[in-house]
Amino acid sequence: MILSINKPPSSICLIRLSAIGDVCHVVPVIYSIRKFWPETKITWVIGKTEYGLMKGLEGVEFIILDKSKGFKSYYQINKDLKNRSFDILLNMHPTLRANLVSLFVRSKHKIGFDKARSKDFHYLFCNYHIPARKKQHVVDGFFEFPKAIGVNDVAPFWNMPLSKKNNKFVDKYIDKSGLNVIISPCTGQKAFNYRNWPVERYAELIQFLSRNYKANIIITGGKTDLELKSAKKIINLSTVDVTNLIGQTTLKELLALIKASSFIVCSDSGPAHMATTVGVKVIGLYASSNPYRTGPYNCQDLAINKYPEAVKNNLNKSIEDIRWGRRIRDPYAMNLISVNEVENKIREIIKT
Fold it and tell me: Does residue 159 lie in a domain region?
């Protein structure tokens, strides 16, 4: 504990704007705090897209930052927070945008990351800092925040809100008597973000699922050109009857779909962590990033981990000799994962 608290705080503000996987990781922090201090009011400053997934989370007030509005969004945040103060601010997002938001949060106790995990001068925007820890999963790193204020009973617990309408949405896509597999082939479009498995291998995997298990296969993702083109190519190559929902679901509908599925296959992306929140098994495909840091928290045993090999190939080093969490910027790194390895993980799931 870095902040001595004699009584439960009346209010806590939390900043984590993005991304989808990271806001999923925040949920157990909130539930841990609420369990320890049920009367404490929690306000979460969150991005507009991410709010679409978190809307309705029990016991949380949301203040939304719409980054598409530029500086107007900060004006609105300041307006929303004006004349308010909080006992504690947990700034769980070490970015310039979150640092700017923190300036509008009135609190004597602003807790942020340690120097090693700080970016964009984040360290200077906080007057308390969580302790430096080595080789933590992102979830465990986030748990340092409630521990810093005396909440030591933390647990990876999620209770994601889904409406009847969200759950009803899946009825026309899920085969209730068969194997339902979600394929989420793409990660976010960022420069040098080489986390996508080759579409040809997804197509081969789909053929395996159809041939051996007569699986009901659903491809999901957003509306970007990359996702739309990838799905089209996968379907054309697989020559199998596949449901293509690329760009056709809200985040809530996608969560409901994942919840109703048997398992999901994806690389290091938001849907892997969405699946974790609803207790669905994830076969995570990892080569350019370290699954022990960013992999599905409850499915590490199902992750295919080629990260050490990719590190060796590209840096001629072992993972012990590089910065924790360093990404491998190699467009061919994901080729290290074979279709056969994914098939073996599927067999492992089906046997259990």
Answer: no
Question: If we measure between CA atoms, which residue out of 160, 158, 156, 130 comes closest to residue 144?
Answer: 130
Task: Give 120-143 pLDDT, tens digit per residue.
Answer: 999 999 999 999 999 999 999 999
CB distance 124 to 98 below 8 Å: no
Residue 109 tokens, joined: 């106790």
Cα distance between residue 45 and residue 60, in whole Å: 10
Helices (H), the chain: 20-36, 48-54, 71-81, 96-102, 138-148, 164-169, 199-213, 225-238, 251-260, 270-277, 291-294, 307-315, 339-351
* Full domain range(s) for residue 115: 11-148
pTM > 0.90: yes
Backbone angles phi, psi at 123, to 5 degrees: -55, -35
Domain identity same for 143 and 235: no
- CA-closest candidate to residue 15, choices 42, 44, 40, 41: 44
End-to-end CA distance of the chain: 41
Residue 267 φ/ψ, nearest 5 degrees: -95, -160
